[in-house]
Design brief:
This protein has 242 residues and is of the alpha/beta class. The chain contains ten helices and eleven strands.
């Protein structure tokens, strides 16, 4: 039986373009991503922008916390290369987007992100991932949000937490996933998402375990494997008829 796997590009196509930039997102989509994963944080003036870290130091050599900068200042210091969430949603129109909310956003921050998603007309193609505190805030901001609850231990999430968050997906670091965990997740009625394997060997192992989604930095490699996995078997020439 053929298996459908969602191929998710981690921060776009970061081995070709700087992560979380529009160029990186466009590249990932052109190379076969079913969805793109982006990190979203708020500036000092409450504008959601694409950035994983708390500061601009690693990517932009500016040792300033994002929360100390306005959206205009971020644009100035990065020559416009850090897009707003609204810009990213506009440029990925038609593609699924997984919004990762690093840190621990409060309800106000979650509502601001959800508001931008709604204003962009993207609510039907956006889903959210992060740990329990962030996803509880998203659930409070949007009762209809699609959520991938990131879980980092082998111990299963508590039933009360699952009831409060109501995730569609459980999102695990790929090294934690074995057959028993995959079966437990599916038995509980959830889809299984994993992050971030970058080798063919790891991807093949996860595909064999029956995961539903893989987030990777090497979207071209994953796309090739998922296409091969979904392709119908070649006919047996010995049994074919002229």
């Amino acid at each position: 039986m053929n298996q459908t796997i969602t191929a998710v590009a981690h921060r776009g196509d970061p081995y070709l373009f700087r992560e979380n930039t529009l160029d990186s997102l466009r590249s990932a989509i052109s190379r076969g991503a079913d969805a793109v994963e982006i990190d979203v944080r708020l500036t000092r003036d409450g504008v959601p922008v694409l950035l994983h870290d708390e500061s601009l130091k690693r990517l932009w050599e500016l040792d300033r916390p994002l929360l100390a900068l306005s959206a205009d200042e971020v644009r100035e210091h990065t020559v416009g290369k850090v897009p707003t969430l609204a810009e990213a949603l506009a440029r990925t129109d038609g593609t699924r987007v997984m919004l990762d909310l690093p840190g621990t956003p409060d309800l106000r921050a979650a509502r601001r992100v959800v508001d931008v998603v709604r204003e962009s007309g993207a609510a039907d193609r956006v889903y959210y991932c992060a740990g329990a505190p962030a996803m509880l805030a998203v659930r409070a901001a949007d009762p209809a949000a699609e959520i991938a609850l990131t879980w980092t231990t082998l111990a299963p999430p508590r039933p009360g937490l699952l009831e409060a968050v109501r995730p569609r997906w459980l999102n695990y670091r790929f090294g934690l996933v074995d057959r028993a965990l995959a079966e437990r997740v599916h038995r509980g009625g959830h889809l299984l998402s994993v992050w971030t394997p970058d080798t063919r060997r790891s991807m093949r192992r996860l595909i064999a375990l029956g995961v539903d989604s893989i987030t990777t930095n090497r979207i071209d490699t994953l796309h090739a494997l998922t296409r091969a996995n979904a392709a119908p078997p070649s006919p047996d020439r010995r049994g074919s008829r002229a």
